What we know:
Number of helices: 10
Radius of gyration: 23 Å
Strand content: 5-15%
Oligomer: single chain
Largest sheet: 3 strands, antiparallel
Amino acid sequence: MTETSEPIERSLFEAPPLAEQERMVEAILFASAEPVTLAELEQRMPHGCDPAEALVYLRKRYEGRGVHLVRVGDAYAFRTAADLGHLMRKETVEQRKLSRAAIETLAIIAYHQPVTRAEIEEIRGVAVSRGTVDQLLELEWIRLGRRRMTPGRPVTFVVTERFLDHFGLESARDLPGLKELRAAGLLDNRPLPGSMATSDDEEEATLGQSELFED
């Protein structure tokens, strides 16, 4: 009597060696103008590849080099090392200047997102023009979030991965605190509207409790 065993299913194509997978990920990221998500890497690479593991090794390989592999939200990209950024000034100078209103609006969205237009106006103390919001939308630094489940169902605004990438942030949690912004001269020392009796520490704690992203 002979024993029978169930056939072992094998993939028709074996995954390339990890070193080759690293090369694939490296090539895709270098060729892409925008950060690439893990899902996109999985779609482009051969069946059986593990781009997540390849990214770990590739990130270590670029430590201390002129460019680093960084995470931008849920995506990955190669970026110039921070200490060499001064060499890229000519290539990274923005010709279009943001107005004071746009800067304040962007800061409010970044720290209070998801936030409605009415909430932005309440914090700033003045009306927000359509042109200001349109400029930030055109730069793709903000996008529309979910509508609030309140009367009128107002739309909310949140920052985008392009915003995080531009400012070298992995996530909105990496935004500097109020103390750092004021020390750098990017925020007035005057209290925010409605926070006359609130200390810096209390303000930072309140901002840190805001929800970061909407699907």
